[in-house]
Amino acid sequence: MPKGSARIEVTAEGRRQIAAEFIKLINLRLRYKLPLIQREFVGAVMDGIRVYPEVLGLLDGGVSSDLDAELGTNDIAATISHMFAVMETQSRITFVPFKPPGASFLGAKLPSSFASGGTGNIDGTFRFEMIDGDFDEVINLPNAKYVSAPSKQIIPWLRWLLLEGFKTIDNWSITFDLTDQEEIKSRTKKALMKRKSGEHWVVPEPFRGDNIDHNFVIRAVASLNLETIFTNILKRHIG
């Protein structure tokens, strides 16, 4: 008896149901794998931040750039490391499950164009959140500020690096040419702030952070291809 074949025609409704079942499976797998995906992605992002040239200059305590002397603190490396640990702990990926075209959302029927941007494809969302925009969690860390003995001013050096690098200390200037007595007074033993009329001091470039959208953290993150990093991790876990 000759072999034969039969062609099964799947209706549009059948295709929709099959797609919906596949999407359910994908969503279930993603929910199960999300903690692992999050841990790997956050770790990869933090690794990328730590090797950014500007950040390396902070993690060495600012010694190579004399930033420690400029800011008057020996706590840069420890505080930045503490800050990164806080960021890593608080970073989150949230996942809005995929939905097929024409799916219902909050009880309302969605047209295909709404669910897929008009392409007829499925739609879902991943959102990565690292730290609140005002950096409140980190700018008040221990040793992120101190009181300057010569000027009696509070020096919120981490806030300056992240948010307020444009702030100036008027009528004061930093000097690296110290006498023996001045070296004793210096917190870093490298430099000292001295009163000098008409002079002013400001956080040196390139470490200055002018606002929440322009500081060493944002610049380091912007240097990374987050989409590629995330896509590679995602493929590894759901492929």
Commentary on this structure:
The structure is a single chain. This protein is α+β, with helices and mostly antiparallel strands. Helix content is 45%, strand content 18%. The protein contains ten helices and eight strands. It has a two-stranded antiparallel ribbon with strand order 1-4. Strands 2-3 form a two-stranded antiparallel ribbon. Strands 5-6 form a two-stranded antiparallel ribbon. A hairpin with a 2-residue loop joins β2 and β3. α1 packs across α10. The longest helix has 39 residues, at 12-50.
Core attributes:
single chain, 239 residues, alpha+beta, two-stranded antiparallel sheet, two-stranded antiparallel ribbon, 10 helices, 8 strands, rod-shaped
Chain-wise SSE layout:
Layout (H helix, E strand, L loop, with lengths): L11 H39 L2 H7 L7 H5 L4 H15 L1 E8 L4 E2 L2 E2 L2 H5 L6 E7 L6 H4 L6 E2 L6 E2 L1 H6 L5 E8 L4 H6 L6 E11 L13 H7 L3 H13 L1
Antiparallel strand pairs: 1-4, 2-3, 5-6, 7-8
Question: Whole-number average pLDDT?
Answer: 82
Q: Please state the structural category.
A: alpha+beta
The helix count comes to: 10
Radius of gyration: 27 Å
Give the gist of this structure.
With 239 residues, the protein is an alpha+beta fold.
